[in-house]
Design brief:
Length: 87
């Protein structure tokens, strides 16, 4: 059986910051969520794409770390030995 997981990126912006939530969904997906934020320097010109890219990268990074933590916990649950996993 082939699993298919989807990462949905949702953004919230104001004049100085962009936040992003990366939500994982799909059959047998763990339902994890990562968050990330980007802040604009007040002296910089506004460019929402840059803020969205940085906030999305940070949210996906957070999500990835959570998934590695879950995988390590699963390995430790089976082996009863500390798991040391890296991205």
């Amino acid at each position: 059986m082939q699993n298919h997981w989807v990462v949905d990126l949702s953004f919230d912006e104001d004049e100085s910051r962009t936040s992003c939530t990366a939500s994982l969904s799909g059959f047998s997906a763990p339902g994890a969520q990562g968050t990330g934020e980007a802040r604009r320097n007040p002296t910089d010109d506004g460019d929402s794409v840059i803020g969205e890219e940085l906030a999305a990268a940070r949210a996906c990074h957070d999500l990835a770390h959570q998934l590695v933590g879950r995988a390590a916990a699963g390995i430790e649950g089976h082996t009863h030995v500390p798991a040391h996993l890296a991205l």
